[in-house]
Each structure stands twice: as structure tokens, then as C-alpha cells.
Design a protein that fits this description.
This protein has 13 helices and 7 strands. It is α/β, with parallel strands linked by helices. A 5-stranded mixed sheet has the order 4-3-2-5-6, sandwiched between helices. It is flat. The C terminus is likely disordered.
Length: about 375
């Protein structure tokens, strides 16, 4: 602003502001003297200093330490004493930096977000209970399901007429014996339902050497695999609106779960069935799929653009709430000689992740030579 003042007598205020990049209105505001607002007089109805100290002393009394100003005023009124309104009490507390929660209330604990990892079957299970509508209104049957998170295999299920901690205990115990779970091997995750947090279940898991974890309250994302499995169960075309009896619900489940474990190709595990992954057949199945794709490539290599076809891959690890490590850089694939990092060498054209990088290799018999010769790269347009 001082530079504009020095330059303005020679070139004018407009030119000086344009030359120095100063807004004219700001310059004119700078020239005006600062106007000091007159102090507001104290309202005639305001409390005096001694009265304010009396009110603050009442608020500081031991019997009012955990009472709100409204409760303090009501108590004083019952004793025949009136000093000021509730709002004035809040103003006095604010002037003394004491406006906070005064009531003695229970503070709920901060629940930690579960971060669970599974790299093989029978390392992490997730279990939950869902309702199946019965023949009449307000009648339900309860479906208990235990799911292996890594393989998505339903290791145990049960339909019962009620939700019970003892029934849940029996199902978990039988399932652990069936899967031959050893102490320290397994973690079981569930939400915070009454059966999940019950003492019979907790004592059983402690006896079996199984670690238990729970979701945060009102956070359904902490138990996503069980919720997703229930969605698959209830959105099947043969799922009825209501079950006529508990025998009907059990009969439906006896059809669904064998299909889900042995026939359903799951998108989360490389389009394999849960039984293939759970019982160690995934590697052989993927190898057989690759042989079929190699034969298809041999028969019609022109149908595959730039890359060899590959089947869906099986994830090596499955997380519930994978931790976010911002300091870690994203893993990048190793680049081959002559390949640019900014332009991927190729993308899947037949099956698999459409965005995955592939580095084709020449199979036995010379399926395809990915390295173009210098003459092919410099082919003229008329040489077709």
C-alpha cells in the first residue's frame, strides 16, 4: 500500500494499482482511518460483579458438580433462591471457560477396528445368525452359519427355532472337532449379538484355544463375509417368501449349502468352488484351466490380442479391514527390457482381471514371438 501511495501522485491511483496488482477498493479502505467502535454499555438488567460471583460459587458447590445449569436452577428454586436464568448461568460458565459436560455419565469404551488376516483355510472363521420368516407373522427360524473366510467354505450350519447361546456353543464345538482345529490355530470373528458374546461360547473357545474377535457396535462392514453369504442364500431364485415349518427351512438349507460349497463358482476366490480351495484342490484346477487356455491359444492365436490367456488367480491373503499403510508404495511388476513403465505390455483379452498386467512367455513349440523385429516395427503403411 505504501508503494501505491508513492506512485499515485505521478501516474494516478488507477494506474498505480494496476501496475502493482493492488485492488483499488482495498487501497481506499487502507486510506480511511480505523474506526474504533464504542464500547457497549452494560445493560441495566445485567448482574453485578458480586452477583455473578455468587452464581459461580453456587455452580462450584460440591453438590452441583455433576449437574447441568438447568438442574442447578431448579434445585435453588426448590430452596426458595433465585439468582438468574439458566442462560445467564451458561454465559457465566462460558466467560470462565467452564462450558463442558458437567453431568456424571458413563463413557463407552472406544472399540478397536478388527484387522484380521487369513492366508490359508481354517485360520479365520466368521459366523453369524440370520432370521428366516416362518408361516405366520412374527414367527422366525434362526439359521446359524460358520464360514471359512479364506476359502468361503461353509464349515458348519444349523437351523433352530430360537437363538440360543447353548446351541451356538454346540455348533461351534462340533465344527471345530469336524475340521480338526488345533489350539492356537483358529480365530473366530462375529458381531456383538447376545449369542456371540455369551459366556458359554466364550468359555468354549477358551477351552479349545480359539481366539475370538467381535465387530464394532453398529458396524456391519466388520463382518462382511457372513453378510455376503447370507445375501447369496436369500437371493437364490428358489428362496421362498416364508417357510411353512422348520423342516422346510432345513430341507432348503440341505440343498443350498452343498450347492454353495461344491458347485458355486465364487468370484472372490478365482471362480473356484469353496470346496476346491478349502481342501487344497485349487492349484491343480487352475493348472488344468491354464492347459485348456493354452490349447485354445494354439488353435486360434489371432483371437487373443497381444497376450496369452490366463485364468482368474486365487488371492494369497484375505483381510477383514485391511490396514492402510500410506507410507508404503504400491508394488509394481518387474519390467522387461524395452518395456515402458507408463504403458503396460498387455492386458487380459480372454479371462481374468481386465486390468492386470501380463508378461507373455513363449510356450514350447513357439506359440508366439512377442518381440517384433525392427522391420515389423518400421513397416510402411502400404506393406499390408
Amino acid at each position: 500500500m505504501a508503494a501505491v501511495q508513492d506512485l499515485a501522485p505521478d501516474v494516478g491511483i488507477l494506474a498505480a494499482c494496476i501496475a502493482l496488482g493492488v485492488v483499488r477498493s482495498s487501497f481506499y479502505r487502507y486510506l480511511r482511518p480505523a474506526v474504533v467502535a464504542p464500547s457497549r454499555p452494560a445493560p441495566p438488567r445485567a448482574l453485578s460483579s458480586s452477583e455473578r460471583e455468587t452464581v459461580l460459587a453456587h455452580l462450584h458447590e460440591e453438590r452441583f458438580q455433576d449437574c447441568s445449569p438447568a438442574a442447578v436452577q431448579a434445585t435453588l428454586l426448590d430452596e426458595g433462591v433465585y439468582h438468574c436464568s439458566t442462560r445467564t448461568m451458561y454465559r457465566i460458565l462460558e466467560q470462565n471457560a467452564e462450558t463442558r459436560e458437567r453431568r456424571d455419565q458413563r463413557i463407552h469404551p472406544v472399540y478397536q477396528k478388527p484387522e484380521l488376516l487369513a492366508t490359508a483355510p481354517n485360520e479365520l472363521w466368521s459366523w453369524d445368525i440370520t432370521k428366516l420368516m416362518g408361516p405366520a407373522k412374527w414367527t422366525y427360524f434362526y439359521l446359524y452359519v460358520i464360514l471359512d473366510v479364506f476359502s468361503r467354505y461353509v464349515v458348519g450350519w444349523m437351523v433352530a427355532p430360537r437363538e440360543s447361546a447353548q446351541l451356538a456353543r454346540k455348533l461351534i464345538e462340533d465344527t471345530c472337532h469336524k475340521q480338526q482345529i488345533q489350539p492356537g490355530q483358529l480365530t473366530i470373528h462375529a458381531d456383538r449379538g447376545s449369542s456371540m458374546t455369551s459366556k458359554p461360547v466364550a468359555f468354549l473357545l477358551a477351552d479349545l484355544g480359539v481366539t475370538k474377535t467381535h465387530s464394532r457396535p453398529y458396524v456391519s462392514d466388520d463382518n462382511p463375509f457372513s453378510e455376503s453369504q447370507f445375501r447369496t442364500f436369500k437371493y437364490r431364485p428358489d428362496f421362498p417368501d416364508r417357510f411353512g415349518s422348520i423342516q422346510d427351512s432345513r430341507g432348503h438349507s440341505q440343498i443350498f449349502f452343498p450347492w454353495y460349497n461344491d458347485e458355486h463358482r465364487h468370484s472372490g476366490i478365482g471362480m473356484l468352488t469353496p470346496a476346491m480351495v478349502h481342501y487344497g484342490q485349487a492349484a491343480q484346477v487352475l493348472q488344468n484351466r491354464q492347459l485348456v487356455l493354452d490349447a485354445a491359444y494354439l488353435a486360434h492365436p489371432e483371437r487373443f490380442v497381444r497376450t496369452l490367456p490366463r485364468p482368474f488367480s486365487l488371492p494369497k491373503e484375505v483381510w477383514i479391514n485391511k490396514p492402510i499403510a500410506s507410507h508404503e508404495s504400491k508394488p509394481s511388476a518387474t519390467l522387461k527390457q524395452g518395456q515402458s513403465e507408463s504403458r503396460p505390455h498387455g492386458r487380459s483379452s480372454f479371462i481374468g482381471d481386465p486390468g492386470a498386467l501380463f508378461f507373455p512367455q513363449t510356450l514350447n513349440g513357439g506359440l508366439r514371438n512377442e518381440k517384433k523385429t525392427e522391420g515389423e516395427r518400421k513397416r510402411k503403411p502400404d506393406e499390408n
